[in-house]
Every structure is written in structure tokens, then in C-alpha cells.
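Protein fold
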Amino acid sequence: MKMHFSIPVSEQLLEKFGGRYVLYSVYLEGFLFCKVRYSQLHHWNDQLRRIFGSTVPAFPPKFYLAMTKSMAEERRSQLEQYLQSVTVDPSITNSDVFISFFRKLQQDTFQIQTQRASLDVYLADGRNVRLDIQTSDTAERVLEVVSYKMGLSRELIGYFSLYFIQDHSNGVLSVVKKVAEFELPYVSLQSMKESDCKIGIRKWYMDPSLDKTLMDCDASVNLLYMQALQEIEKNWVKPTDEQMQKMESLQKAANKMKVLELVQEVQHYGYMQLDPCTCDYPEVDCSAAVHVGNNEISCSIKLPSNQTKEVSFKINRVRCWQVTFLGAVTQPKDQGPEQTLELRFEYNDSDSWKWIVFYTKQAFLLSSCLKKIISEQLMKTTKEDKEMIAHSGFIPRKRILVRPNKEDGVFEKIREEDL
């Protein structure tokens, strides 16, 4: 699926020896990631085409005359669409030419050279693991290092991810964004210093039943246990008095497996909680507490009349969704603009399709969670199909290849292949 690249702003600058050029601010998951010129992207596209050929999407053409305002806006939009489209193919995003290009851009943008450094990765219980890294290490590499130090089995690393997290003074926990695998955590952390963020390791799956896959590894059990206790403490999940008494008894007995087994029964366990936001359902100007996971967006919605409505939007009734920048709020120059975001999704409500809108600064995080849910559903369906084939003795004759279309979350058939 597409990555959440966007180019909401650009600026025209003077060349060193005369002339002008446009510098595009590339945002990833709603945060400034790097700045880049058209010529740099054009050269990179040539490199990609030499390796991947026609699978690389069309690159926006050059303009040989002075650009008008409308032409500049068209190019900005085309470059944004190009970056989104080029990230659909995992063979491209996992390639050296992709990773090294964005590594250099990110370091150049924030003027951080490659050198040895220390990086703290925080656990859910507040402790940190200090790592010796290179400033140019990707999140994938940092996750491997911290997993090794904790004794996490290599085959289980994919069930976890690095996140930028805020611990507010009022005790509220906010997950700001998931760190992309090719992103440089050290550089991103320096660029987000004003947001008072830290890097944490948390699980990265939306189906709570996947916990059972991690029960044979002490390190993964410890990570799940710490996160479960943190989410109870921060009121992400709210056990009943009876459940809480049982868990406290199990904690005293140091029975982590039983605690994790019991917490599975608590509402919203394994979900991602967003900061309070607003929505237009069932009417405009409603406030909402949002949890996403286990194939649903679960909302406690407060109406303008102060009545509360509990709503569950089932993912299998969502046709598509999109994130939109509504504008930028000016901030200090070195931080860039703070983005105002909305996520809207088309939902089948009582046999009619309607658009439902959430206004939240975590719109990209919500979108990532929806993508993850879709991905897990597809994997589960594929696994079930294979098991059914194995039991039935049926031999498939064709393979159907699909890809996401321009609207996130919707897949379309590319072609059929004989097996």
C-alpha cells in the first residue's frame, strides 16, 4: 500500500550564482521528513528506471518555459502523487537506491552528518535501552539492535515497531506516529525536539489474538506485559473491578502469561488509542474518543447536547478513506508548519454509503492502523484459503494479482496468471 508522503508546501529560492529553484518540503505521516529539488527527484527517477524499468510510475515532465503559479501547483501535486505511487512496490521501497536516497536527503535537510551516537529506546514501563548507533541507521536497523539487546527472537521482530511517543505532564500517553522502516530515528528525533517526543518500542498489529504467536519467547512476553500494564495505567483499557482484582493477584504471583490471557477479555485491549478529536457523526461538532483495532474503529462520541453515543465502525463496511491537509498553522521557521488534518472514510451505514469525517492531528496514524487491519485480514484470508486447499486436495490453476487503487484501502485486479 502507498506510504503517507505529502508535499503540502514549497518555497522558491535563489541559486548561488543566479537564477531560482523550488524546494519542496516532503512530509511523511504528517511530519517534515526532508526537503528536495525537482532535479534531485528527476535524477533519482532515472536511477529507479534503470533498475526497475516500467514498474516505476511516470515522472512529472520538465517545463522548458517559466512556470506560472498554476504550473507550479500542478508540479507540486504531480510530485506528491509520484512519491505516493512509487512506494506501492515493496521491491522499490526495500532497495538500496530508495533507502540511500532518502537517507541522504533527511541528513542534508537537518544537517546531521554520519557519526556514532547514543539513542534511547523506551519501554512501556518507563525504562530505556541505550543503543550505540550511527546517526544514519534506519529504523529497521535500530529495531534489530534493540531487539537483539532484549533477546527478542529474530522471527518475531516484525510484530513490533518503533514509535514517536509523548508522555504529557497530566499523565496522558500519546502515540505521535509510527517510525517508517527507512526513516532515520536519530535524525527525526532531533527534528522533533520541540514536540518533546521520545522513541518507544510497541507491538505493531491490530488483531489482539496474534498475542498467542509471541508466547514462546520471554522477551516478547515481557514487552506485551509491560504494554498491557501501561495501557491500563493510562486508561487506554479499563478492566472491571473484578478483572482488576484478578490481574493484581496475578501480578503479585508474577504470572505474566495469565495476566495477558485475562487482559484479552478487556474492551479495547490491543487497540491504538488516539488523542481526543472531533467528528461529524452523527452530527457536526461532536467530540470523540477513538480506539482502533480488532477490525473496528470504536468511538465514544459526545454530542453537542452532551449525550454520549457508543459507535463501532466495522472495517469490512469501509469502502475507502483519505487523509487531507486542511491548512497550515505557522510555527517557528525551523519547525515548519503544524498541519491541520482530517481523515474521511466512506461507510455503509444502514445500507447507504456516507462519508464520515474525523478531524485529528493523528489522521495519518489512524490511516496506518486501517492499512494494517486490511493487511492482516488479507493475510488471514490467504492462510485460510491455503488450509482449505490443503484439506480439500484442490489444486489452483490461476493466481490473481491485485494492487491498491488511488483511494487507500481499495484493491483492484491487475491480471490473472496461470500456475
